[in-house]
Specification:
Number of helices: 0
Helix content: under 10%
Shape: elongated
Distance between the termini: 23 Å
Radius of gyration: 23 Å
Number of strands: 21
Structural class: mainly beta
Length: about 260
């Protein structure tokens, strides 16, 4: 492995909301990511402030797609000189105005948490693992590759199982990022053999020359000497195109599509 980042993240306390399903937390590893996300620890706590009179809800974990909404969380660093990939995004639900939307796949793991029989005393239990503890061991990691996501949600039998303003959910995660193999591409933008500074270079990558799963990798601005550079995932192909303006109209200059690592 080539670990480029280790970090930790936590939600704010998330109040129950009377819904049968409440999405609490997501990890999204975007399609343009240059890392695999290795989840080392994922836990939940519930501080209930009212005695539960209904069936206890389950907290479920599943892989997920089409993630949006919620509050994007800051990433805590194990080492301040490391930087997380920008495509790795953590989200938490925050009130009704910041709900998480996601499409879950099959449930991977599920957990009961605290059931408060009486509100006379406070009950705080240990963190409840939301994935098997085996993921903390080398060789048994839970991996999210680019364009994959993970969802933590509360699933209740009836609305009062996760009554509004009674449950305080808290999700925490420790993860690391394993760099994906890439190859470098670069070039020089010129006009009449003169380097152009400040030109926009659009870089696209795809799985093959038929543009399977094609994505906009990034837009680079040429530096001194008209130079630009980027990276393409090993095994994929890339294209680079230059946008320019003449007479108030934008054009795309012929580029060098389908760059391969050969």
């Amino acid at each position: 492995m080539a670990i480029s980042f280790r970090g930790m993240v936590r939600t704010y306390p998330i109040l129950g909301n009377n819904d049968l399903v409440q999405n609490l937390f997501t990890i999204g590893n975007g399609i343009a990511s240059r890392v695999n996300v290795i989840v080392r620890r994922l836990t939940v706590q519930n501080d209930a402030i009212v005695a539960l009179t209904a069936v206890m809800p389950l907290v479920k974990v599943s892989r997920a797609t089409a993630i949006s909404g919620g509050l994007i969380l800051d990433k805590g660093k194990f080492d301040t000189v490391q930087f997380s990939d920008e495509a790795v995004i953590f989200r938490a639900a925050m009130y009704e105005s910041a709900r998480i939307v996601a499409t879950p796949a099959d449930t991977l793991w599920q957990k009961f948490t605290t059931r408060l029989h009486t509100a006379v005393e406070q009950v705080i239990v240990d963190d409840a693992n939301l994935l098997t503890s085996l993921i903390e061991d080398d060789g048994k990691e839970f991996i999210l590759r680019p364009n994959e996501g993970l969802l933590v949600s509360v699933v209740a039998a009836i609305g009062t199982s996760n009554a509004a303003l009674t449950n305080n959910w808290l999700v925490q995660c420790i993860w690391s990022e394993d760099e994906i193999a890439t190859f470098n591409i670069s070039g020089v933008v010129t006009l009449n053999s003169v380097p152009v500074v400040g030109a926009k270079v659009i870089i696209v990558e795809a799985k093959d020359k038929s543009l399977t799963d094609a994505i906009l990798r990034e837009v680079k601005t040429t530096t001194g000497g008209g130079v630009w550079s980027s990276t393409i995932r090993t095994g994929w192909v890339g294209g680079a195109f230059v946008q320019y303006e003449t007479g108030g109209t934008l054009y795309t200059a012929p580029g060098s599509p389908f760059l391969e690592n050969v």
